[in-house]
Amino acid sequence: MAKNLHFSKSSILFLAIHVFLVILSGRFTHASHFSKSIQGLEGSLKGQRVSGLNEVKRYLNRFGYLGYETADKHSIEDDDDEFDEGLESALKMYQKYYNLKVTGRLDSDTVKQMNVPRCGEPDALINGGNHVLHPQYAFFKNNAKWPPSKRHLTYTFNSTAKAVRMEILNATCYYAFKRWEAVTNFRFQEAPQGTKSDLVIGFHRGDHGDGTPFDGPGGVLAHAYSPTIGQLHYDADEKWSLSPKLTINQTDIVWVAMHEIGHLLGLNHSQVQNAIMFAYVKNGVTRRGLHPDDIRGIRALYAI
């Protein structure tokens, strides 16, 4: 059995004083391919044909705003650069969801929002969609959640790419699980490596076999699946750090852990910007506690 760790000031101190940056095998830039592609598209509007708009369509489709049958990038042709009515409608929906001025154009505020790194889980309600929306927080389709018999969840680690030291990942997840334990009746315990567990956490790079490939530095940071799938995947190409004081290019690994665990428990994205379950994670910013909206959401889902 895994060693029973005690949550204490020392574990918090461990998180506060250890800084770890991912050693990338290639580039150290934090700009994703999409971020580079969208820079020259600001100001585009319906009726125009602008090279690169296909990337915007793929982005909006991936996160639920276009409603194409597949989110695979090949579902949108490389020359699909018409700013058509569908793109305008999707942009308006995106702008409304993120409390931006609803213009239907690729204005500066919209481009700026799209450039922020984020979770890979879709946002919007499309044709019955994947979400049950509430004023702020959201659930997955059919209120997917763990059955009453599963309130003690075990977790293990399994990575296909090297990113952070094992003790860093272990301490990160331990801390994040404790935040959710404090506001629910769930308990989480690490299981011995190689044994079956309810949750599996790991670092991966690019196409890692689940149909939702990572995009390299920037862009999508991580993704996790609704209950009871139990998979949490970090993008190994990000600059992850535990430090309470991050540089502008670093991403808070603890914030992302708390967010993705929220997905594992059944919460989807919140429209509250300061909530852990908000989809976007700003580089250089740390968050180490749950927002009241996160707490209301998880307690509503499990009737606590």
Automatic annotation (TrEMBL):
Keyword vocabulary terms for this entry: Hydrolase, Metal-binding, Metalloprotease, Protease, Signal, Zinc, Zymogen
SMART domains associated with the record: ZnMc
A Pfam family hit: Peptidase_M10
Annotated Peptidase metallopeptidase domain residues: 142-304
InterPro entries: M10A_MMP, Pept_M10_metallopeptidase, Pept_M10A_Zn_BS, Peptidase_Metallo, Peptidoglycan-bd-like
CDD domains in the cross-refs: ZnMc_MMP
GO molecular function annotation: metalloendopeptidase activity; zinc ion binding
Protein name according to UniProt: Peptidase metallopeptidase domain-containing protein
Originating species: Carya illinoinensis
